[in-house]
Amino acid sequence: MVEWLLLAAVVVLIAANATFVAAEFALVTVDRPTVSRLSETDAKAASLREALRTMSTQLSGAQLGITITSLVVGFIAEPSIAALLEVPIEAVGLPEETASVIAFTAAFLIATVVQMVFGELVPKNWAIAEPLKVGRAVVGFQRAFTWVSRPLLWFLNGTANRLVRAFGMEPQEELASARSAQELGSLAARSARQGLLGEDLARRLEHSVALGERTASDAMTPRPRVRFLELDQTAADVLDAVRATGHARFPVTGDSVDDVRGVVHFKDAVAVPAAERATTPVAGLIRPMRAVPSTMPLGPVLEVLRRGVQMAVVVDEYGGTDGIVTLEDVVEEIVGEIDDEQDRPTRAYRELGERRWSLSGLLRPDEAGETLHLELPEGRESDTLGGLITEELERFPRIGDQVVLAVRDESRPDDDGLPSPAQARLTVTRLDGWRVDRLTLAVEDLEEGEQNA
């Protein structure tokens, strides 16, 4: 009879252990903004919010409860189960000593399995799957136990905190809920892989949170690709430039390209009477244009472009013109390439076959990687694929030169869902002076030995 009463106590203790485990995992995994929103109208959610504000203390209380219940279960469950098993085992005809050993071993296994399954694993998995529901259900019991155990927890937490400080770290009462831009970007990518977000939306979110990490030089059109006009040119020259390039705005220079005086818009040239366009100088049509340093993050650049003319000259550390950046350039860093009625068709990317492309040498590695679903390495000093090839060759490239880079192929994930290792073979196919104008990129699988190296 005593053994059965003890087993009933074991069931109660395992239930208490399960409650502590559920509380621990629910507190760690529950969505705080959701709890805060519900706490305005739901008493249990309000209690859960209070528990989250003293996270460290509540977790200590849960761990104390788990420790106590586990020890007591082990202390009374095994002898009780062994006593109940010993009689039927002896009835089989085994010696008393042998029956005692078998009964104790069986009792140990039974108690361990029941405790692990019902006291640990089931509540853990339930709390991870439904943290809000579980948290609301167990928070009252958890907070009450923590309040009763407060003196002991104060001593245990104080001792642990002193040890933590001895290692140069400051204990925190609440779990950090704020996330860095990099963490938010990783969260968006992970959500897309799990099918919770569309790929386009996840990519825009990643680009948005990474905007502060990119600079004006990342988004600008470099100086060699910019069509400049001079002060002594005319409104007719502006319209000729519009027809030749499809652009609507052009920076206007004075003595040199490093002396940018402003910007002229094609609408101002069109407003000039046709008979006077050939004699109306650009100097009378220009508007002021802001200048930004090449190292300015794109967030502040966006604010500059929103306040005035949607074009700014990018200035390098020596005061020279590095290129120009427009509002469209910054927006494209978030949403991707924007084609409008003024854009000329571009062939920055051309697919040549399976996992093989012809690319512009002026593409940035991250731009090419995003389109080709590859993780390409960045150059040490250069910003473009052509510059990356020059860095790897350590000389000016020639047609036919090849560079092999270690990459990760996002289109072929490994067993863990991560981009698989591969190699990209970059071949120079066309030059523009000293610069790589076109190249081919071919993705090749690694040999098994190289993958394991």
Automatic annotation (TrEMBL):
InterPro entries: CBS_dom, CBS_dom_sf, CNNM, FAD-bd_PCMH-like_sf, FAD-bd_PCMH_sub2, Ion_transp-like_CBS, Transptr-assoc_dom, UPF0053_domain. It holds the Pfam family CorC_HlyC. One of its GO terms (cellular component) is plasma membrane. Residues 220-279, 285-341 form the CBS domain. GO terms for molecular function: flavin adenine dinucleotide binding. Transmembrane segments: none annotated. Its main location: membrane. SUPFAM superfamilies: CBS-domain pair, FAD-binding/transporter-associated domain-like. It comes from the Bacteria. The keyword Nucleotide-binding does not apply. Residues 1-201 form the CNNM transmembrane domain. It is a multi-pass membrane protein. It is found in: Cell membrane. Keywords: CBS domain, Cell membrane, Membrane, Repeat, Transmembrane, Transmembrane helix. Belongs to the UPF0053 family. This is Hemolysin C. It comes from Tessaracoccus lapidicaptus.
